[in-house]
Amino acid sequence: MRKTVTASLEEIDRVAEEIREALPEDAVIFLRGDLAAGKTTLAKALAKSMGYKDAVTSPTFSIEQVYGERLRHYDLYQCPNEKFMAMGLLESLEEPGWHMVEWGDDTLRELLREHGFYTALVEISVEEGRRLYRIETDA
């Protein structure tokens, strides 16, 4: 599926709901966009759409944050794929639920697909004060 949604930051909950409805219970969601495009803001909205009520922060330095039993958030900005795998984080992707990956590249996405993971890609760009969310799923 490919879909583009245009929304302001005030409409982020609607975007998260559309993404949530389009994905299965277990998925790796790649969040891409320039710095300050709204990747972590979208991650917060996705967590909220899943009923998570606590704070959601960018895992820039910790690389991985776990929110409840079915939601994980990764920031690979300073973590190349080899380091990600050496740290055992590839195994954490086998845990049930959603895995939101900021800055994950096409190589990692293809590797996950080859190993049977369901992936989705959300590319975020800013145009005239609004966000364009280009959503691509494996289905």
Short description:
The chain is α/β, with parallel strands linked by helices and 139 residues long.
Structure description:
The protein is of the alpha/beta class. It has one domain: Rossmann fold. 29% of the residues lie in helices and 31% in strands. The chain has five helices and seven strands. It has helices at 12-22, 39-49, 81-86, 89-92, 106-114; strands at residues 2-7, 27-33, 64-66, 71-75, 98-102, 119-127, 130-137. Strands 1-7-6-2-5-4-3 form a seven-stranded mixed β-sheet. β6 (119-127) and β7 (130-137) form a beta hairpin. α1 packs across α2 (39-49). The longest helix has 11 residues, at 12-22. The chain starts with a strand and ends with a strand.
Summarize this structure as a short list of keywords or feature phrases.
139 residues, alpha/beta, Rossmann fold, 5 helices
